[in-house]
Structure formats: C-alpha cells, structure tokens
Amino acid sequence: MAEPRRVVAVELGGSKVWCAVGQGGALQQPVRFATTTPEETLARVEAFVASQGEIRAIGVASFGPLELDRTSPHFGSLLASPKAAWSHTPIAARLASTCGVPVAIDTDVNGAALAEQQLGAGERLSPCVYVTVGTGVGVGVATESGLLHGLLHPELGHLPAPSLCDFEGVCPFHGRCIEGVASAPALARRTGRRPEELPDEHPVWSLEARYLAHLLAAIVLAHAPRRIVLGGGVLARHGLLERVRHELVVLLAGYVPRPELSDSGVAAYVRPPALGEYAGLYGALLLAQPPGS
Ligand SMILES: [Zn+2]
Q1: How far apart, in Å, do the first and last CA atoms of the chain sit?
Q2: How far apart, in Å, are the Cα atoms of 78 and each of 97, 202, 255?
Q3: 178-200 confidence digits (pLDDT tens)
Q4: How many angstroms separate the alpha carbon of residue 45 from the centre of ligand 1?
Q5: Cα angle value 25/28/32 (rounded, 5°)
Q6: Is the pTM of this model over 0.90?
Q7: Comparing C-alpha atoms, which of 67, 111, 63, 69 is closest to residue 88?
Q8: In this structure, what DSSP letter does residue 216 have?
Q9: Phi, psi values for residue 141, rounded to 5°
Q10: How far is the CA of 171 from the centre of ligand 1 (A)?
C-alpha cells in the first residue's frame, strides 16, 4: 500500500501562526501561536514539523510582501515589510534547509483565494478573487492557470482611494489608499473608537461600503472574475456586505452587462468566505499538495 502523502500547512500571519498536518485533503491537529520574532516564530514552526515524523512537503501562506519570482535568489523571502524585523527573512529557504523537504510558498491572501476557489465559496470558478478587510486590505487572485504573480503579487489593497472625504488615511506609503482609508486601523483613527464598538448606524459604514465598492469595481474591471469572495474582520459588521454589493452595482452603472452585476444577481457573485479562519491554512495545504497530486 502506498504511503499516505502527509504534508505540513503553515499560515504565517502578521499576528498569529497556524500549523497543521494535511493528509488526503484534510487538515489535522491545527495549532496556533503568536507571531513574534522571525527566529522564535520559525523555530516553533520547525518544532511542529519535527514532531510530525515523515512528511513530504511544507506549504506556507505568508503575510507579505513576498519575493515570488522563481528566478530570484531570494525566492520565498519577505521583501521590505511594515513588520520591520521580518524584512528580508528567507522563509522558504530556511524551512527547506532545516526541515529537509520542498517548501511551496505564496501570500496568505493568494492562498486563501486558492482555497476558497477550490474548496469554498469560489465553487471552482476562475478567475476567483479573494478580498480581506481587517488589519490590512489584501487581495488574492486565483486564475485558471494558478495564482497570479508578475513583477510582484496583487497588492490591490494599496489602490489609490477616491476622494470621498477629507480623512488623510493611515497607510505609511500612500496615506489615502484603500487600505489607508478602509482597514480596521483606518476606521479606528477616523472615529476614535475600535470598529467593533461602532454602532451599525454610524455614518462611517456608508463611507466604508463606498470605498470597498471602488476596490471591487477595480477588481471587476481589471480581472473580470467569475466570483469575488469578500471577508475579513471588518466584514463581520452586520449589513456591510449588502451595502458593498449595492454600491458596486451603482458604481459600475450597468457597464458590465452580466446578471452577476445586477441588483438581483450580485449577492450570488460577491460572497462571504466559506472556510472562515481556515482559508489561509487550507491554501497552504493546497500549495503543498496541489489537487490531483
Ligand atoms: Zn497604501
């Protein structure tokens, strides 16, 4: 009998790490710990791997930005990161060296896009775009031929924001990009309160819906996705997803003549994630163990 193909899936987030064993498409023994220094955090990942016996590969879905150009000697390393201590950490090279197995790596949002496309709300449609709105705003794009990379990977959270208000934004690079005006820290700076403490009727939610609709309109026009999955902590706000859908249809003004961009069809088109907090971890599993392998 063939030996089961066991892998380790790692979601390396900005504040927490998930590790799990993947076998036969299922995740087992998920454990979570805080993201601290690169040395301490990667040592804990290595200890998890070492405790699992023989594995075939490691899949990592990491916060970015990442070097994903396979011709680069720095493939799988973080680029200059807002988490300064992590800048230029060679994540993939280190894990491959210390664990002695191949390491597949992509961004956490690309991983989540792949997982939602293959196993969740994307229903295997291509392109499938995953958008998360929380501490940051991230976008991953799963196409028919794989996850989208080029000069970099998609960073549409940093799309310049339209002038809908005079808030200066919080992005250290751009001030007023979508992440700078619509992330959880932006909401907190704008209102002086934690987003989860704001009432549903607070006027900032209308503005939030319009900013996110601009991001989604750019995604529709640039990538022509057949499905958009929109999640993250900020989207837990009651009624926000519905408002974003409505504003998206208004903004596109009938230009994309598809039922998905109509008042009656948009709810099936812009969907909440189906995999919840495990989307990135399932993405890491699929990176390590592509379907059909
Ligand atoms: Zn920005």
Answers
A1: 17
A2: 17, 38, 39
A3: 999 999 999 999 999 999 999 99
A4: 30
A5: 120
A6: yes
A7: 67
A8: H
A9: -130, 115
A10: 5
